[in-house]
Amino acid sequence: MSIQLASVTKSFGTHKALNGVSLSIEAGSFFVVLGPSGCGKSTLLRAIAGLEPIDTGEIDLDGLPVARDGFHLAPEDRQVGVVFQSYALWPHMSVAGNVAFPLETSGKRRAAVSSRVAECLESVALTPFMHRKPAELSGGQRQRVALARCLAQGAGTVLMDEPLANLDPHLRAAMEEELAAFHKASEATTLFITHDQREAMALADQVAVMWDGEILQVADPDTLYRRPVSKRVAGFIGRSTLVPVVVERVDDGEAQVRLGEITLDVDCPQDCIPGPATLLLRPEHLVLATGSRGFEGTVERTIYRGGYWEVFVRVGDVSQPLLMLLNRKAAVGDTLRLDILRGWVLPG
Ligand SMILES: Nc1ncnc2c1ncn2[C@@H]1O[C@H](COP(=O)(O)OP(=O)(O)OP(=O)(O)O)[C@@H](O)[C@H]1O
pTM surpassing 0.90? Predict the structure, then answer.
């Protein structure tokens, strides 16, 4: 099922939780909405599910309006499954009972229900646990029950609100793989909400970065990482150093910039113009120089991250230290000869 939002707004009192949100989500894709706490992610998901009426704008599912101009299709008529952070399982029912419940209430025959339940439990590897109660499961297993329930309903669209937020890092990584497998097997359009950029990068076909009720950028994870449209998006995705530069020359997606005393060739957007700008440097863009190339910097701070060090290097009168990764120890005060392989020019 495809999902379209056109200029959707939703206010709570004077606060605009959704401020003119437009999105187009392709059928079958894994679409992640990424943003800090309170930016409106849950409100967006609830609006699509039909749990929150919108003020203005339009929401279409598979090209058909489900919300616009005062029209509001009830959640149960939208055929979207929702998985919340709290899983919302019935504690008194077994795993199988939880998965069967929506099918039974929709009036399906008993034999059809039990074979569908068995199929769905199998697909999330929960068959051995089918007679247990939710309280007798781990967080990850409960999560899978909620997924199986979505799957059983045959929802062509699954909306997930921070479903991994309660899990420890180890289980989280395992669940990420399971979610990817679930998505592949079910081919359901998946809208996944998170404030964890690492999770977004790992799972998404497309990521929408949200901030204060607005969508700042929609792109695949690699584009978002390499070509963010603003400092805000850049700062939210991955580690980086943002430093002021002066763009001297621009030629078809490449720019010559001046960073303090250093002149660099870097990538830039097509609409980049000469003048003051900000340069985005990812840690892997900075390397130790070979031969006669490069420039000198002084190590200001190092942090061991297990297998490698984050090293902050002060270069000339550049306003802040540049972050690089080294697989050997460097001491504070050491002089390093550096090279910058790439960079990305941001406006302003
Ligand atoms: N029912 C409500 N009444 C009043 N304000 C609300 C209501 N629901 C949400 N808000 C406000 O709208 C804003 C967006 O909330 P929302 O839950 O969508 O954010 P979020 O990005 O999902 O945050 P989190 O990651 O913390 O769950 C917040 O400022 C929140 O306080």
Answer: no
